[in-house]
Structures are given as C-alpha cells and as structure tokens.
Design goal:
By secondary structure, the protein is an all-alpha fold. About 90% of the residues lie in helices and about 0% in strands. It has helices at about 5-30, 35-70, 75-125, 130-145.
C-alpha cells in the first residue's frame, strides 16, 4: 500500500489539473463570441442584404414597367401605371414579410439556446465542487448567455 506522502503529490497534481482546466474554460468563455451568436449576426446581415436587393429589384421593375406604359395613352396608360405600381407594392410587401420572418427565426434560435443552457446548467446541479464549476463553465461556453 502507498503511504500518505506518496498519495499527496498525485492529489496535488489532480487539483492543479482541474484548476487549470477550469481556468482554460473560463478564459475561452470570456474571450470569444459563441458560434451561434456569430451565425445570428451573419443571418441578420444576409437578411438585410436580401431585403435591400428585393426592394431595389422592385423599384427597377417598376421603372421598367412604367417606361413600357409611356407608349400607351389615356386610360390604358393610367391602368398600366397603376398595375406597375401595384406590382412594386406587392414585391416590397413580400420582401418585408420575408425580412420579418428571418428576424423571427433568429429570435427563436436565441430562445432555443437559452432553454438548452438552462437544461445543461440543471444537469450540473447533480455534481459538486470543482466538477460542478467546470460543468457550469462549459455550459456557459457552449450556449453563451
């Protein structure tokens, strides 16, 4: 059997290793933005660009349709211009609806991450001491509140 002097260095190294591991996890948590948040920012930027492109296309299509109406006269011209304007309004409304849908989807993703974080943190409750601390830090790093 091993005496206390032989076991103590192993225990000391284990505690140092756990402390170092916790420090690394904490450092990573504090130093980076979670991948999910980066995706959220990218999704918002892409949605904004798509919305702007759809609005620009609607405006260009309206301008082209209105120019085609110039060959007409009287009521036919008025109907043509109103029809072109209605198509532009419809296209812009569709772009706006799609943009709102993307924002709603992004918010749903955030809510899902928050719920998953709560579950992960609750799982840590069954642990104690350093293991519990590490578990909680890993949950924070993964779901980044």
């Amino acid at each position: 059997m091993l005496d206390e002097h032989t076991q103590a260095p192993g225990r000391i190294w284990r505690e140092r290793l756990l402390t170092a591991g916790a420090a690394v996890v904490l450092g990573l948590t504090l130093s980076s933005v979670s991948p999910a948040d980066e995706l959220s920012k990218e999704a918002k930027a892409q949605a904004k660009a798509e919305y702007k492109a759809a609005v620009d296309k609607a405006d260009a299509d309206y301008k082209a349709a209105k120019e085609r109406c110039d060959d007409l006269a009287g009521n036919d011209k008025d109907v043509c211009v109103k029809d072109a304007k209605a198509e532009q309004t419809r296209a812009k409304a569709d772009a706006k609806a799609m943009n709102k849908s993307t924002k709603a989807s992004t918010e749903a993703g955030k809510e899902t991450r928050q719920a998953e974080f709560k579950v992960a943190k609750e799982k840590c409750e069954s642990l104690a001491g350093n293991a519990k601390d590490i578990c909680e830090k890993e949950a924070e790093a993964k779901y980044h509140q």
